[in-house]
Structure formats: structure tokens, C-alpha cells
């Protein structure tokens, strides 16, 4: 009976170690995804600045700006 309890105790400890390792990997993956999303957001903001500058200087019309911004928004995944 004691041997059976020891076997189950070892299995439980092993399962707990596996769970902690999986949680650690999941946490690391979430951090990577968060960082990638921040990079994508910064890229979007930089790319958005160019048409804004063109609009301010009169190089493009409001309609061209809205079209460009709409296309960029969709391509970057921020649109509907």
C-alpha cells in the first residue's frame, strides 16, 4: 500500500512540474506576442505619419489621404 502511495505521489509531483513548465512557456509566448503587437502598432503609427504629412503639405487631397489611411488600416489588421 505504501508503494502505491509513493508511486501516486511521484506522479503528482511530476505532473506539477510539467504544469509549471507549461505555464512558464505560455507566459513567455504571451510576452512575445505582446511585444510583436507593440512593434506592429509602432510600425502602423510611423506609416500613418507619411500620408498625414502629405495631407498637411497639400501633396495629396483629403480623399487620397482617407483612401491611403483606410488601405493601411486594413492591411495592418486594424480595420473591420
If you had to describe this structure to a student in words, what would you say it looks like?
The protein is mainly alpha-helical. The protein has one domain (2-75). It has 2 helices and no strands. The longest helix has 56 residues, at 2-57. It starts with a helix and ends in a 5-residue tail after the last helix.
The proportion of residues in beta strands is under 5%
Number of domains as seen in the coordinates: 1
User: Ranges with pLDDT <50 over ≥5 residues?
Assistant: none
Oligomer: single chain
Order of helices and strands: HH
Overall shape: rod-shaped
Overall average pLDDT: 90
Query: What is the CA-based Rg, rounded?
Result: 26 Å
Termini separation (Å)?
Answer: 62 Å
Brief sketch in words of this structure:
The chain has 80 residues and is mainly alpha-helical. The protein has helices at residues 2-57, 62-75. The radius of gyration is 26 Å and the shape is rod-shaped.
Outline the fold blueprint:
Elements: H1 2-57, H2 62-75
Helix pairs in contact: 1-2
Main attributes?
mainly alpha, 88% helix
Amino acid at each position: 500500500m505504501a508503494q502505491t502511495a509513493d508511486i501516486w505521489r511521484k506522479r503528482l509531483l511530476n505532473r506539477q512540474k510539467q504544469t509549471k513548465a507549461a505555464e512558464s512557456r505560455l507566459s513567455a509566448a504571451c510576452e512575445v506576442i505582446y511585444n510583436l503587437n507593440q512593434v506592429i502598432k509602432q510600425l502602423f503609427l510611423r506609416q500613418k505619419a507619411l500620408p498625414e504629412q502629405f495631407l498637411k503639405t497639400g501633396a495629396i487631397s483629403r480623399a487620397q489621404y482617407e483612401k491611403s489611411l483606410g488601405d493601411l488600416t486594413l492591411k495592418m489588421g486594424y480595420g473591420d
